[in-house]
Structures are given as C-alpha cells and as structure tokens.
Amino acid sequence: MVDELLQNWEKKSADHQKLYKQYLHRADKRKVLKLLPDLHDEAFEKIDCLQCANCCKSYSPRFKTPDIKRIAKYLKMKEGDFINTYLFIDSEGDYVLKSKPCPFLGADNYCTIYEERPSDCHRFPYTDEDVLIKRQQLTQKNSNFCPIVYYVLEKLIALK
Which of 66, 85, 118, 134 is buried deepest, with most CB atoms within 10 A? Predict the structure, then answer.
C-alpha cells in the first residue's frame, strides 16, 4: 500500500512550494541536519527510485572534469568525443546533458553507467546533506519531480 503522504505527491508538492520556501528560509539548520539522515533513510524505504527515475528523465546532473574523464574512459571514448556526443555548456558554465531523458537510462530505469555515474547523480537527491538547506531553490525545484525530496520536506515541516 502506498503511504498516504505520497498519494498525489506531485500536486501536493506544487501546492506547497510557498510553504517549502518559508520553511527552508526559517528552519533551524542544526536541527534539520540532525533529522536528515533518518528521514532520508525512511524516504528510501518507502520510495523505489527504479519505479520513478524522474531525475534521469527530467534533470541533468553537472558533469565535472573528473566525471567526464572517468565516464569517457569507461565508455572507451576520448574525452572530447564524449563531450561532443553527450554534453553542452549551460548558462551557469556547467557541462550538462544535451538530451533528456539521460542517454544512460535503460528501459528498465537502471543506469547503464551506474558505477561511474557523475557525482551529482551519486549524491542526488541531497536529502542526507546540507545542500537541502544551503541550496533552497534547488531543493524546491527538486521537490517538483523527486518524491523523496517531497517526502523529506513534508516530514520536516510536520516535525517543526
């Protein structure tokens, strides 16, 4: 059975954006950081990323130089060819994917480069680290397509 909190989560997240902004702005950062590990684990127990994969379908991680070197090597490509094939530089000066969904997302929602994936992918959805509080606009944006971010925010607000 699906957790009641997660029913219609996309609509609820859209409706709660102002509430999230206010909460993140006013939250006691130390208190939130203490709560995050348990809430993160709880969310991952209830939500199966492989059933969703919204992050891979609608979001591009940043590809930093170490990511590019590692992935190109894994794919047996020259770094320049990897960049030309898959990436472009966005308005913030970061390498991001040219296309969505991610070209490395399999039909089964598994990542075909999982062991070599970019650090942004490895860290996503940032619900167990200070990025949740430090990068509030990113957290709000992520809550629109990631049920784990939505879940953690809702739980934090309920605990305040």
Answer: 118
Closest C-alpha among 109, 110, 142, 144 to residue 127: 142
Domain positions in the chain are 9-54+124-159, 60-122
Q: What φ, ψ does residue 139 adopt, rounded to 5°?
A: -60, -45
Distance, in Å, from the CA atom of 77 to the CA atom of 15, rounded to the nearest integer, reads 44
How many residues would you count in the chain?
Answer: 160
pLDDT in tens, 25-44: 999 999 999 999 999 999 99
| CB of 152 closer than 8 Å to CB of 36 | yes
Q: What is the dihedral of CA 94, 99, 101, 106, to 10 degrees?
A: -100
CA angle at residue 133 from 114 to 130, to 5 degrees? 50
